[in-house]
Amino acid sequence: MKYKAYSVHNFRKIPQIENLPEEEKESIEISGNVFPFKVNNYVIDELIDWENFKTDPIFRLTFPQKEMLEEEDYEKMKAALNSNLDRMELKEVADSIRMKLNPHPAGQMEMNVPEVDGEKLPGIQHKYDQTVLFFPSSGQTCHSYCTFCFRWAQFVGLDGLKFAMRETEGLVRYLEEHHEVTDLLFTGGDPMIMSFKVFKQYIDPFLDPNNKTNIQTIRIGTKSLGFWPYKFLTDRDAQDFLDLFKEIVDSGINLTIMAHFNHINELKTPAVKEAVNKLIEIGVQIRTQSPLIKGINDDADMWARMWREQVNMGMIPYYMFVERDTGARHYFEVPLEKTWEIFQQAYQQVSGICRTVRGPSMSCTPGKVQILGVEDIQMNGQKEKVFVLQMLQGRNPDWVARPFFAKYDPNASWMDDLKPAFGDKFFFDDEMEAFEKEALAV
Ligand SMILES: *Cc1c(COP(=O)(O)O)cnc(C)c1O
Q1: CB-defined site of ligand 1, < 6 Å
Q2: What is the pLDDT of residues 183-241, one digit of tens each?
Q3: Ligand 1 centroid to 425 CA: how many Å?
Q4: What is the pTM of this model?
Q5: Which parts of 58-199 are beta strand (E)?
Q6: Distance, CA 163 to ligand 1 centroid (Å)?
């Protein structure tokens, strides 16, 4: 299968789009000038049900929609597009709208960039002891873009947002000095967008038996199984990738694909089934994750069916995330209480084999905060309705797996909306403040 991608500049040429009402095309064009927009022929031809495109989860996952923008911003972008502005002027209008959409959430820019010999390593984030995130510079795009993506800002060229690093040298030196790090997570974008030659360069140092890092697991965060399974089937370098993966596994390193699947429809094609089989056959583990997104997968039964299907295919459900506080969040967000209800209703329907999944989890500045539920609790003579929470990961490992409480708020949809219950601070607030001060001082 030959890869063909469309963007805001040529999407009108997609055969299935030509038949849509002009109003629909206009809405894609206007929102697609603010948000990243790229969709490929596999998504168009094999995943989207065009008879019901309006409600189709994969259409909503890949085509920008009018309601992703506030009405005022939509009209502003529309006026700009109708007034013969040049590319730079159009970008200025789009950027002014983008800046209102919290383009870099959870302190990613300032707080998690490590140093070697006093020099910052900008393609690396090290937040939790055991795991380093690596953003290889040539893996910072995707086979198709997701409308809800929290990394959206780096695809639209907002200044300074592109974490990237051309060389693995700094990475390897850092890992040699940090033996607490057992996991290296290649992320992006999508590392599976890289050509084999480039990808191999990043992996080679870890295949050298004399390397002095303590890397035991290499993870690859990718949407390729969902959006372009031909990466492992018919792409020119498909076999090279499979061979390299086997070499990694045979060297004793655990290789895990962190596969991003948002909807069970992404599991239905012969291509994805075959790609999953090929990976599992050579000993690659596949773990799955997705945020809960309104209008795309806010359906407990679908999650239960999806987890079961993943397990049937040999994959391991791993995370359900809460949609982050960035981009078109007003359009995609689900309140925390509802999110937890969907998680619970789905979790109740599956056997223990599927319950490797953890969530719903918010990746916020202090850590990964899991919503355990909503309860009435009496403490020190005070009775309150609260959210019960715990951290799955913490900036300080001592914070992990310690239950804490936030005041119940039916409208809360992110950690920032939550207020401490039974007191005026969360247990980690003082330490967090100290971390933030330190980061700003650097
Ligand atoms: C989620 C995450 C990781 C990986 O956490 P695990 O619980 O080991 O999957 C690492 N770094 C950051 C910044 C993360 O958000």
Answers
A1: 125, 127-128, 131, 133, 363, 368, 392-393
A2: 999 998 899 999 898 899 899 999 999 999 999 999 999 999 999 999 999 999 999 99
A3: 25
A4: 0.94
A5: 115-116, 119-120, 124-128, 131-134, 183-186
A6: 17
